[in-house]
Amino acid sequence: MIIDTKPPVPEPRRVKIFTACTDPVFWTAMPALAVDPKRLGRELIVTFARRHQAAHAFDIFRTKLLKDARQEKWRALGITAPTMGCGKATIAANLAVSLARHEQLRIGLVDLDLRHPRIAQIFGRDGQYTTQQFLRGQCLLEDFLVRFGDNLAIGASSDTAGYPAELLHGPGAAQMLERLQEELGADMIIYNLPPLLDSDDCLGLLPLMEATMLVVGAEFSTIADIDVSEHQLQGSTRLIGVVLNKCRYEADQNSNFQS
């Protein structure tokens, strides 16, 4: 949801974006995550320092994404890939940081890839509670989430699970994600989902996503894998686009992110 900062007179200016269920105090009570620019640079989070040419592409992507979210009234975006190694976590993190540059937006970023979690490593998040404990309802939201800046909430841990499908597909996880949506009151929550074709972890999460995005690796993802992934996403949720990542060519700098 985007608020027009110049509404016609005499209507009062709408400067808050909180939904009815959101308490702004909740955000300020979240532990603040220390920002490490060097780590973010090593992890290719180009939207933080904004010196890389790809940062401009993410800003354009952000604007288009917000327009679509406002028109279609969705707030939960799942980002997945055909297989591991396409860079979906890097794309999700860059997009979240870019969105959070809008001071009137509240953004969430949650890592649900329990076999190969990356978000905690990207941001240097080492919390007391794990993602598995959160999904089982064994901790409070404010104990699991950390705040990056003023308006980006990150839920992630570095713990892995050998067989996470039962946890991700269970009713408890769905209830916790619904609770997160309601209590966090974010304008958009970005979920780093498991890869589609490496296991069945992602399939049970797709119905919980209001929109999805597919990240493919140039010279990495096969045409067959991309076709199967697109078909699965279109059959379960709203596929809003495909992002070409790891592209070495610069013919169109606004359409890919080199990593």
What would the principal axes of the Cα set say about the shape? Answer: globular
| Helix content bin | 25-40%
Q: For the record, what is the CATH homologous superfamily label? A: P-loop containing nucleotide triphosphate hydrolases
Largest sheet: 8 strands, mixed
Count of spatially separate domains: 1
- Which topology does CATH recognise? Rossmann fold
Number of DSSP helical runs: 11
From the 3D coordinates, which CATH architecture would you assign? 3-Layer(aba) Sandwich
Query: What structural class do helix, strand and pairing data support?
Result: alpha/beta
Overall mean confidence score, pLDDT = 86
Question: Any idea what the radius of gyration is?
Answer: 18 Å
Number of strand segments: 8
User: What proportion strand?
Assistant: 5-15%
Q: Note the gap between the termini.
A: 30 Å
What's this entry about, in short?
This protein is of the alpha/beta class and 259 residues long.
Structure explained in plain terms:
By secondary structure, the chain is an alpha/beta fold. The protein has one domain: P-loop containing nucleotide triphosphate hydrolases (Rossmann fold). It has 11 helices and 8 strands. Helix 11 links the parallel strand 6 and strand 7 (239-245). Mean pLDDT is 86; it is low at 1-22 and 251-259.
How would you describe this structure in keywords?
Rossmann fold; disordered N terminus; 8-stranded mixed sheet; 15% strand; 259 residues; alpha/beta
